[in-house]
Q: What sequence folds into this?
């Protein structure tokens, strides 16, 4: 876009140029351009449209302090605003943000708002300033957009037109940059508890083991699990379960020291790495402290007390292994051993190798599950956030072992991926989901989760083509869901395979968005059709402003990139109301139905399929 040197033009011309500028900003946001570059370009282009103005953009943090973003035509000394607190008499920008309304100062020399700051402006020939607050859709003030003038005067009608558009452009750019920062932080932190995640574990544990080896010290790995935690989610709901997990994390911090590495492994599993002496006594004592500190009653705001029992498995470096994978496996083996007895702790012993043997048996059994007919597929509805009309279902795999009963996907999926059984299992889910969807009278979408192993190790695109042909399902009714780990393992193969799938007419969604290694980079790596916001953000957004901001930012990014956004884990009317306010496209969660055999949803897939979900909702809540 070339605007430099353009004369002050009429309103129609300016509107057209501002529309072009907004499109340029959206492209910059989608491509990950820095906020400084985008705002600098904005200032240059605006100054080309209105040659008598000097443009600047500043932001405000949560503490109400200003930070200079861009103002390429201002003197270098303009950085004086950094760290200044907003208030009723803090120049034009600080006052505009404080009042949440535009402030027009036509004479900096005499206006009391500039009494304490006018020397900075007058020294550089700035005589007037008009500042407008930059507001997010949820009402938060993000900063201020200002026009400085070298003459004592007010803004013209055309200049006001420019500002009315630019504050919205600035809001999009600042919010998207904030989202990028938050999402990058989430690469190493669990959003629910604030603890480190598996990526943090891999990075920091390697350093801890190296240092311990050099100092001839030991490192204890304490794998913490909560006994029967699934019952808490089943009885009280995931929102209550999440509250308990946050409180467990708080207690973990109080039991451990600041130098210890504490991470959430996922679900109700945590790990603490602690440098200790060479004797077992130190590990036993700390394991006991963990069990006693985490077990007990947790008060809920409803007045109900929820009992939690902790289980801890311990491995020791270097006695039980010298590499991360071995130590983690041994700590998990010890945890599994003690968990069968209820609660308490156990140190890894050589006889526990039998536990690892049992895990190998599971890997064997899961490999036979397809041929033995032990697998089944359940479905969970996805609804339009605005109309509450059912748009499709997500297909989910279940395994009922002949001896051990229902096995959690969290247990058998990793075993299937390790053994290679995930390839036939994935083909089973895809084929069953498409076969079932093809029977529906209602032309609803069906979404199928696909493991990274399926895409990088098999001719998955050909499998999709064959299944669509066999079942007669229209390609546009199938959606493949992948996670960011796919692009970590083999980005080139992933892109090629997914493009082949899209060429068939099948849509592709990115699942658990925001919880991986580099969400924005992944989003730019491939033209996805849909983003699924992870339930950990959605479940926390009502009471946690950071979670709400992340959800808002992800939805905004989706809109900017032309992608539909699905929010997972919706369990309350309050969450639905907020997601509608944020203009989320689709929602999914227990509020609208649990994962069930498709027969439970026959009233939605058959010829009498309701256009809105309200008539079906009471029935679903009874399931």
A:
């Amino acid at each position: 876009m070339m605007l430099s040197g353009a004369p002050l033009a009429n309103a129609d011309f300016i509107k057209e140029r501002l529309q072009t500028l907004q499109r340029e900003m959206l492209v910059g946001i989608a491509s990950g351009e820095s906020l400084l570059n985008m705002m600098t370009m904005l200032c240059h282009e605006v100054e080309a449209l209105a040659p008598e103005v000097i443009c600047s953009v500043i932001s405000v943090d949560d503490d109400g302090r200003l930070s200079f973003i861009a103002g390429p035509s201002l003197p270098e000394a303009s950085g004086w605003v950094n760290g200044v607190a907003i208030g009723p008499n803090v120049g034009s920008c600080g006052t505009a943000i404080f009042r949440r309304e535009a402030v027009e100062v036509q004479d900096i020399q005499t206006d009391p708002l500039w009494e304490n700051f006018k020397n900075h402006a007058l020294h550089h020939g700035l005589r007037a300033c008009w500042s407008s607050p930059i507001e997010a859709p949820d009402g938060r003030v993000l900063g201020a957009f200002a026009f400085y003038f070298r003459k004592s005067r007010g803004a013209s009608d055309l200049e006001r037109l420019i500002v009315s558009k630019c504050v919205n452009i600035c809001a999009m750019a600042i919010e998207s940059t904030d989202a990028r920062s938050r999402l990058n932080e989430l690469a190493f932190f669990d959003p629910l508890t604030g603890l480190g995640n598996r990526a943090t574990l891999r990075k920091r544990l390697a350093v801890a083991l190296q240092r311990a080896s050099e100092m001839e010290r030991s490192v204890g790995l304490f794998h913490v699990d909560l006994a029967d935690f699934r019952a808490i989610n089943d009885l009280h709901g995931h929102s209550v379960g999440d509250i308990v997990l946050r409180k467990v994390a708080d207690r973990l911090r109080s039991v451990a020291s600041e130098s210890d590495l504490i991470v959430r492994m996922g679900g109700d599993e945590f790990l603490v790495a602690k440098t200790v002496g060479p004797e077992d006594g130190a590990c036993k004592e700390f394991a006991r402290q963990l069990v006693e500190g985490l077990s007990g009653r947790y008060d809920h705001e409803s007045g109900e007390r929820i009992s939690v029992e902790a289980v801890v498995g311990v491995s020791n470096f270097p006695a039980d292994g010298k590499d991360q994978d071995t130590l983690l496996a041994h700590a998990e083996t010890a945890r599994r051993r003690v968990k069968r007895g209820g609660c308490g702790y156990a140190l890894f012993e050589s006889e526990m190798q039998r536990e690892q043997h049992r895990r190998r048996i599971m890997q064997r059994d899961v490999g036979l599950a397809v041929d033995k007919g032990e697998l089944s597929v359940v479905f969970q509805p996805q609804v339009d956030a605005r109309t509450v009309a059912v748009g499709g279902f997500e297909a989910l795999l279940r395994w009922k072992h002949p001896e051990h009963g229902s096995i959690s996907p969290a247990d058998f999926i990793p075993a299937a991926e390790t053994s290679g059984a995930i390839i036939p299992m994935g083909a089973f889910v895809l084929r069953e989901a498409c076969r079932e969807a093809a029977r529906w009278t209602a032309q609803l979408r069906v979404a199928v989760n696909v493991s990274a192993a399926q895409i990088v190790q098999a001719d998955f695109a050909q499998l999709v083509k064959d299944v669509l042909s066999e079942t007669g399902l229209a390609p546009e009714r199938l959606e493949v869901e992948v996670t960011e780990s796919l692009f970590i393992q083999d980005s080139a193969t992933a892109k090629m395979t997914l493009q082949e799938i899209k060429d068939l007419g099948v849509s592709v969604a990115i699942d658990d968005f925001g919880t991986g290694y580099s969400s924005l980079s992944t989003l730019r790596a491939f033209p996805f059709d849909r983003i699924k916001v992870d339930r950990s953000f959605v479940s926390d957004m009502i009471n946690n402003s950071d979670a709400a901001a992340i959800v808002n930012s992800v939805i905004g990014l989706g809109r900017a990139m032309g992608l539909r956004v699905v929010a997972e884990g919706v369990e309350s009317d309050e969450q639905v109301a907020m997601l509608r306010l944020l203009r989320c496209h689709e929602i999914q969660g227990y509020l609208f139905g649990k994962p069930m055999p498709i027969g439970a949803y026959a009233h939605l897939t058959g010829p009498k399929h309701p256009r809105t979900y309200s008539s079906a909702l009471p029935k679903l809540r009874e399931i």
